[in-house]
Design a protein that fits this description.
Shape: elongated
Strand order of the largest sheet: 3-2-1-4-5
Number of helices: 8
Distance between the termini: 41 Å
Oligomer: single chain
Helix content: 25-40%
Order of helices and strands: HHHEEEHEEHEEHEHH
Structural class: alpha+beta
Radius of gyration: 26 Å
């Protein structure tokens, strides 16, 4: 598995090759100085400027090819301090799914490890931009009970059903499987067998959303700053979190600053929907317990 130091070294070599005039400038400056030329300082200045550019270029390229969490990723200008129990997960991006897919909750009935084999892999391997290669991502077989969406929030479209499948679960999100509560997308049904074969039922396509599942399970903390600047902790309030996820999906995604969603930074329509979800959570104890 490649390391950050190895990526930096590789990008340093790459940047040096791209900035090939820099060593040429140093060589030219040396030759001019040895000949006693007055203009030797010109290529020397160019070489020094280029030398300062090479490590900057290498570090930027390395950060782009090998993302990692550092102090510069910490949000400090939000005016909302991190809590003592804050857990910020840097998880892979969730798939968008079919346009008609519905975001619902699924309970894990059974889970078993199918494959996880990081042993024996080469120490220096490049995965071409895939930062979660399959051999380092556990393959888990899950039997799920998928709940229908509430009719007040989304067209039901399907009844509660059970399904079994195998999915790659990012290591940071395995706690969602342990908690037994996942956020999934349920897309349009696809044929279970050859077209026209009698006795076959169509099965909806179920796609787990692992970062959202970690949030729904309570592994990731979540707080909301309302339009008046009041801070509310909504961690483990699965009903409200699921409604917030649907609002975020409809809006094309909403950024969390650490573990906090600030409604004051959203457009008026989206902020009002979040406020309505908060009001529903406040007046309905049943919705708060879900």
């Amino acid at each position: 598995m490649r390391s950050y130091a190895g990526v930096v070294f590789g990008q340093l070599v790459f940047a040096t090759i791209c900035c090939f005039p820099v060593p040429v400038a140093f060589l030219l400056a040396y030759l001019a100085w040895s000949e006693g030329e007055d203009w030797a300082w010109i290529p020397l200045t160019v070489g020094l400027a280029g030398s300062a550019l090479i490590p900057v270029m290498a570090l930027r390229l390395a950060r782009a090819r090998f993302p990692r969490i550092t102090r510069r990723d910490r949000v400090n200008d939000e005016g909302v301090p991190y809590g003592e129990r804050t857990f910020v997960a840097w998880a892979p991006r969730s798939p968008k799914g079919h346009a008609q897919a519905q975001l619902v909750r699924a309970d894990v009935l059974e889970a078993s490890l199918v494959r996880y084999s990081p042993e024996g892999e080469a120490a220096w391997t490049t995965y071409g931009g895939d930062f979660t290669p399959d051999e380092f991502t556990p393959l888990v077989r899950l039997r799920l009970r998928v709940h229908a969406a509430e009719e007040t929030e989304a067209a039901a479209g399907f009844a509660e059903f059970e399904t079994t499948g195998e999915w790659r679960v990012p290591s940071l999100c395995l706690s969602a499987v342990t908690a037994g509560r996942l956020a999934v997308l349920v897309g349009p049904a696809r044929p279970a067998g050859p077209a026209g074969q009698a006795g076959r039922r169509d099965h909806p396509v179920v796609t787990p959303l692992w970062p959202s599942s970690a949030l729904l399970a309570g592994t990731r903390t979540c707080r909301v700053v309302d339009l008046e600047g009041r801070l509310t902790d909504v961690t483990r309030r699965s009903g409200r979190l699921l409604r917030q996820m649907r609002i975020s999906r409809a809006a094309g995604g909403i950024e969390m600053a650490g573990d906090t969603i600030d409604l004051r930074r959203l457009d008026a329509h989206t902020a009002s929907r979040y406020a309505a979800a908060a009001e529903q959570d406040r007046v309905s104890p049943r919705a708060r317990r879900r």
